[in-house]
Design goal:
Elements (H helix, E strand, L loop, with lengths): L1 H20 L12 H10 L7 H18 L6 H14 L7 H22 L14 E2 L10 E2 L4 H8 L3 H16 L7 E8 L5 E6 L5 E6 L4 E7 L1 E9 L2 E9 L3 E5 L6
Parallel strand pairs: 3-9
Antiparallel strand pairs: 1-2, 3-6, 4-5, 4-7, 7-8
Helix pairs in contact: 2-3, 3-4, 5-7
Length: about 260
């Protein structure tokens, strides 16, 4: 009995701690902020009675925003997507599988376009020998450091048309393949940094892959399923992570200094 009480106290403590770290929605009914109400609908319990008031309110606010938005407003598309979702479901929250499906469809569209045009949809210009910078610190300003991978990166990016077409077909086949028994799957890596990078994917024995990703772009590769060590140099910083690849995944590296 004593052990049960201790266990119950521990669980309660964790729950209270989690709640204390959560967002404060105590005044949410007074909110006039689309993003705040949208966040509440994603986080709140499905049976929370405030949903019946706030969902129609935020939908009207989104419609009004779209109606009065200036031409070229980048937020309009997002509002339209949220409105479409709110008409079908309780909130704009999407699952991990749904997010993967969205990414997958975008990748299919991209590589189909590349096959049609016969070349990469992204025009690439080889980098200069010095294109990587360390972040500035409090004690000293940012200093340029040599990009020791520049030549290798340029070589990997310089695919001939036949190689590029074969790679694109292989990626598309993997994207369309839903067979759980398939021996290969796709890995997509998004480079959010200001630097060109090479991601090295090392498996068992001689199984190794190199994937070049230009700054602020993404790239994909089809690999054998298994356990891998991912390594890279992202703007001078070392990156390393172990990943088990059994289904398509997306990895995002780095962050931009641009606002």
């Amino acid at each position: 009995m004593k052990k049960l009480l201790i266990l119950f106290s521990a669980i309660l403590s964790v729950q209270l701690s989690a709640q204390s770290r959560g967002k404060d929605y105590s005044d949410i009914l007074k909110s006039k902020n689309i993003y705040e109400i949208n966040a509440f609908l994603r986080d709140a319990h499905p049976d929370d009675p405030k949903r019946s008031v706030l969902k129609p309110r935020v939908m009207e606010m989104m419609k009004e925003y779209i109606k009065t938005a200036k031409p070229g407003d980048q937020k309009v598309k997002q509002m339209q997507e949220w409105l479409a979702m709110l008409k079908r479901r309780p909130s704009t929250k999407i699952s991990f599988d749904e997010m993967n499906a969205i990414i997958k469809q975008k990748q299919i569209a991209r590589y189909q376009k590349e096959l049609q045009t016969g070349q990469s949809a992204v025009a690439y210009t080889p980098s200069s020998p010095q294109n990587v910078y360390v972040s500035a610190s409090v004690s000293k300003p940012a200093a340029a450091i040599p990009d020791t991978e520049a030549s290798e990166f340029n070589m990997l990016m310089a695919e001939n048309p036949v190689e590029h077409k074969n790679k694109t077909v292989k990626i598309l086949n993997s994207l369309f393949d839903n067979d759980p028994n398939a021996k290969e799957c796709i890995v997509m890596i998004e480079n959010r940094s200001d630097c060109n990078i090479i991601v090295r994917i090392e498996g068992i024995g001689t199984t190794k892959y190199r994937l070049p990703i230009p700054a602020h772009e993404d790239n994909s590769i089809v690999v054998q399923k298994g356990d891998y060590l991912f390594t890279s140099i992202v703007c001078g910083a070392q990156y390393a992570s172990q990943k088990t690849i059994q289904k398509p995944i997306m990895v995002a590296l780095g962050s931009s200094s641009k606002k």
